[in-house]
Amino acid sequence: xxFLNGHPDFFEDNAYYVIxxxxxxxxxxxxxxxxxxxxxxxxxxxxxNLYTYIRSDGNVxxxxxxxxxxxxxxxxxxDSRIKKCYTNNxxxxxxxxxxxxxxxVFNITPGEWNDSTGFNVISIKKV
Length: 127
Prior knowledge:
- The chain is mainly beta and 127 residues long.
- The protein contains 1 helix and 10 strands.
- It has a single domain (3-126), classed as Lipocalin.
- It has one helix at residues 3-6, and strands at 16-23, 26-39, 45-49, 53-55, 58-67, 72-79, 84-92, 96-97, 103-110, 121-126.
- Strand 1 and strand 2 form a beta hairpin.
- The longest helix has 4 residues, at 3-6.
- The radius of gyration is 14 Å and the shape is globular.
- It starts with a helix and ends with a strand.
């Protein structure tokens, strides 16, 4: 199934989405934030995080890019605490659309050289 044709009306430019990354074995480990989506020149879906995590020792900001052609997700994380930017890459399945058509849930598999192996599911929900 072609990803975008399989979910033609789910992603809207400039719409808001809540993205949750979690592990099905431990729902206590969850990363949840609100994003606005736009398409880049390659038709990737770029989710811009509306928030920066402000901590006493520095700030962390994460954006997410979904490549619908290769079924991959890339997290871009800027961490002022360690003064660097790094990425985590995941392969995703075609996703499952909820009955109310407001949430897409993907199983994710960490890519090679991935720093983050704690999550195995990503949920993208329309706000």
